[in-house]
Amino acid sequence: FNTPSFAPPSGFSFDRNLRTAYTQHWNLSVQQQLGSNTVAEVAYVGSKGTKLLVSRDINQPTPSTQQPNLPRNPLFGEITQQESSGSSNYHSLQLQLNKRFSHGVQFTTAYTWSHAIDEVSDLFDLGGAPALPQDSYNRAAERGDANFDIRHRFAYSFIWELPGFEKKNPFLGGWQLASTGSYQTAQPYSVLFCCDINRDGNASDRISFLNANGADPGSAPRNTFRAADLSVINLSLNKIITIGEDNKLEIRTEVFNLFNRANFGIPVRWLEAPGFGQAVSTVTPGFRLQFSVKLEF
Asked: Is 176 in contact with 160 (CB distance < 8 Å)?
């Protein structure tokens, strides 16, 4: 008779010493006024996460030559336990230049350099690295760039009331140009073996690095690789027509992702999987054109 092979059930548990996670934040900023309408700001912003929730397999099998005395329940496969042993830190330098609306112009620009480090960034496999560690008995090996670590980010927005040749002329006056945009460097991710190399029942094994002699010096650190950077520019052209003293007609033309840039997400990261190394999805919509009319009375 053909009988299905027995697959031990998985389990889930909470550490009896589970604690409430908390985060500490701090910042220091200096502002300087430039002229009558422009302000520059330089800031340091940091944070530290303590007792963060992490997952590990407390029933992970080990080779007989390594940690042979660890107990394992043969009636179960993976037993995922939630623990409060995670930590994180974040440091950033933030620069801003803001101009209040004057002479028909208003703008805001901001640049951030930052570095986020942790052992795990999600309770589920949502980012660039698995939630379960490669080795549940060596969580220190998971310390590295966070899934959301964006090293550089620049953003801007501006509004410009175009000068009309005759502001009383309903066609030549009342035009307004506005734009928003952002650029950020790539999100990190880990490249994984397609198979369970260490035979612990979890598909979380990272690829190994080879030295100049071809010898294996160990697994790649978590989130070693980076996906593509991201950039989006939006533009709008508005026409405001004043009707009488209290009524106003606004005609808006808006363009999203002006240059139709394809911002790709994390590529296929399982070694020997079909399409390995290729990004198959985008994280922002493509070019879109939108018209709208609003009457205020």
From this structure: yes
Strand 247-256, strand 230-243: pairing: antiparallel
> In the numeric block, which tokens belong to residue 110?
């901001």
Q: Are 260 and 231 in contact (CB under 8 A)?
A: no
Provide the 10 A C-beta neighbour count for residue 1: 2
Give the containing element (helix H, strand E) for 120: none
Kindly state the greatest CA–CA separation across the chain: 92
pTM of the model: 0.84
Distance CA 52, CA 267 (A): 28
Give per-10-residue mean pLDDT for the chain (297 aa).
Answer: 60 92 97 94 97 91 57 80 94 97 93 96 78 88 94 97 67 86 95 80 81 72 93 95 83 96 93 88 94 90
